[in-house]
Each structure stands twice: as C-alpha cells, then as structure tokens.
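Hi all, posting the design record for the shared folder.

TITLE: backbone redesign
STEP: 1 of 1
STRUCTURE INPUT:
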C-alpha cells in the first residue's frame, strides 16, 4: 500500500491496518509525527502514573487483576499517594493520573475525594497546581460529580473495544460488565465537564482490521480530547489466554499499536494521544517509538516499586518506570510543569494560551 492512497474512511483505515508492509508502516508513522509537531507542537506532556490499588470488582476476561484471579492485593494509603504525588510535583510533571481497579465502596470513594483535595493543595513552586486525571472505572454519575467538584478535571475510561459483540466476548455476560453501561459512563463524564479520554486494546483475540478502524471512528464520533490505547498483552492466568483463542504475534501487536497511534493522529490531529505503557512491554523503546508515531503524552510510572509489581494487568517485567531521559536523549522537548491539556479541548473551551 502507498501512503498517498490512504483514505481516512472505514475502508481506507481498515486497509491500512491490515497492510503489513514495513515500509508503509514506517512512512505512515513518520507522516503522523510530522502532523503532530505541526499541529500540537513538538512537546511531550507527562502524567505521573500512580497505581493506587489492584483490588477490583470487575472480572474482565483479559485482565491480570480481575476479581477472580488469586494474586497479592494492595492499596496505597492516603499518605503514600500524597507522597507519590509530591514526587510528581518536585519533578515538575505537571499532572498525575490516579489509576486503580474499580471500587464502589464508600470508604474508597471518600478516600479519593479527600486525596483530590489534598493533591490540589500541594505547593508546586512556580508551576500551577497538579492537574489530576482519574482512571477508576465505571462509577455513578453522582460520584463522578463529587470527584469533579473535588478537583479532577480529566478521566480515562477505555471502551476496550467499540464493537459490542467483541466487547461481550472479552467480558463476563452480566449487567456489571455491559457495554451500554460503559458507554453511558463515558457520556456522563463528558456531560459533567471532564475531559473524557477513552481507548481500546489492540490485537485482541477475535479482533478484525475493521474493528480497529471502528475504534478510531468511535474516538472521532465521541470527539475524545485524549486517547490512550495500547497492544493487548496476554496474562498467563486469565480466561482469555487460557481459552487458547489466537491473537497476533508480539511483533504484530507492537506494529499495530504504533500504526493505530499514527492513524489516529491523522484522523484527529489536535487531540492528546498517549504512548501507552503496554507498548513498553513489547519493546524497551516502545514509549519513544509511540511518540515518534504521533503520541504526545507519556505516563511515567511513579507508583512505589513494591506495589508497582503487584499492579500486574499483564506480564510487565521490563517496565522502564519513571525515567524519561530516553525522550530527552532523542531531542524530544518535555512540557515540564504544564498540564498539557489537549489543543482540541482548549479550543472547545475557547481558552487561549494552551
Ligand atoms: N493487555 C493489555 N491491556 C490490558 N488492560 C487490562 N488487561 C490488559 C491486557 N491483558 C488494560 C485495559 C484497562 C487498562 C487499565 O489496562 O484496557 O482499561
């Protein structure tokens, strides 16, 4: 396939996704990187990732911290989260992401609300207060509102797959795991005023090139200001892996991960796109390659080391954690001390000076 023949409709996107020609894939990633630099600038923004707990009420068939898996569980104390957020402030990361398994108990909800207020009041020196993104799954509208009022302004909730049939295949068949419930949660977040980010896994069993094209069109239709999508990495003990359902090789999943970033950058030039952690599992330079394919956000993991190893969504021995010198070494400027909201969301809010 030739880059000049690429069209950004469903058919064209699916053809680009299915094309395994390395020269085409490299040209596509380079073109997307140019569009990124021209549209949102050369900087990469940082989100210090704090994995707050691996306890989860959900039982997703692909996930290594699913409810029914036997693994050591942990939960960071409020003090530990605050200390970790302070590290993000000291290092001028600009923002943190608080991510964890889905929990709906009152103790957890209250803890997050208190933490949001405490993190907002951390003195960051010259910088604005830390921006806070939450990634804590599906919650009621009231809880989303409570957290928004307490200081969270971005929320990540992946749709996981925009194809309801595929979604059903990779989740238990019950109301807690219903596709419509997840979609409604995404729209609730948006209505409340969050910058609501989404994303999907790439290279899942049963997933077709058309499914991946539809994921990209879903982000466009939802008008997502930010997207974090990454390769599926099988965890040895999950039902999806144990079912023996085939999925693309590690090499293909990595190439697909980069290609999806590149295609999305062409489709939605002014949004934030994260180089997902899952890329780093497949290639030690995955993060940098994601940026060079059009991503402009990276999420250095600042979770205390002991707990980080327990947040085992998939096998992730090789994680490069919080060091971002790989990017600096490549001459990629880092937007220290900035929230790095997407250009698209600032335009929507008519704010100058992004
Ligand atoms: N491979 C890749 N990503 C995974 N996630 C969960 N399990 C896996 C896996 N096996 C992702 C989901 C979830 C995010 C926190 O981690 O997309 O939204």
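Okay, here is what came back for every position:
SEQUENCE:
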């Amino acid at each position: 396939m030739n880059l000049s023949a690429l069209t950004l409709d469903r058919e064209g996107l699916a053809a680009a996704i299915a094309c395994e020609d390395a020269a085409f894939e490299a040209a596509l990633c380079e073109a997307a990187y140019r569009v990124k630099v021209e549209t949102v600038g050369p900087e990469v923004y940082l989100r210090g990732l704090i994995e707050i707990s691996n306890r989860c009420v959900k039982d997703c068939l692909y996930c290594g911290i699913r409810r029914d898996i036997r693994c050591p569980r942990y939960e960071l104390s409020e003090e530990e989260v605050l200390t970790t957020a302070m590290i993000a402030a000291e290092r001028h990361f600009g923002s943190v992401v608080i991510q964890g398994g889905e929990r709906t108990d009152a103790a957890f909800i209250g803890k997050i609300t208190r933490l949001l207020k405490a993190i907002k009041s951390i003195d960051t020196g010259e910088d604005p207060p830390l921006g806070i993104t939450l990634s804590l799954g599906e919650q009621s509208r009231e809880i989303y509102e409570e957290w928004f009022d307490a200081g969270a302004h971005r929320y990540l909730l992946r749709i996981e797959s925009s194809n309801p049939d595929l979604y059903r295949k990779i989740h238990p068949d019950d109301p807690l795991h219903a596709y419509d419930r997840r979609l409604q949660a995404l729209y609730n977040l948006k209505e409340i005023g969050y910058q609501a980010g989404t994303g999907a896994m790439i290279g899942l069993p049963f997933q077709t090139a058309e499914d991946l094209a539809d994921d990209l069109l879903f982000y466009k239709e939802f008008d997502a200001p930010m997207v974090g999508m990454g390769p599926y990495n099988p965890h040895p003990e999950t039902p999806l892996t144990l079912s023996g359902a085939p999925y693309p090789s590690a090499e293909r999943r990595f190439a697909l991960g980069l290609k999806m970033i590149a295609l999305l950058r062409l489709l939605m030039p002014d949004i934030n796109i994260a180089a997902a952690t899952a890329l780093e599992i497949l290639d030690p330079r995955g993060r940098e390659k994601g940026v060079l394919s059009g991503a402009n956000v990276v999420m250095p993991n600042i979770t205390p080391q002991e707990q980080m190893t327990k947040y085992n969504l998939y096998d992730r021995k090789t994680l490069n954690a919080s060091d971002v010198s790989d990017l600096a070494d490549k001459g990629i400027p880092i937007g220290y001390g900035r929230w790095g909201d997407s250009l698209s969301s600032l335009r929507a809010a008519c704010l100058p000076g992004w």
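COMMENT: The mean pLDDT is 94.
Let me know if anyone wants the other runs.
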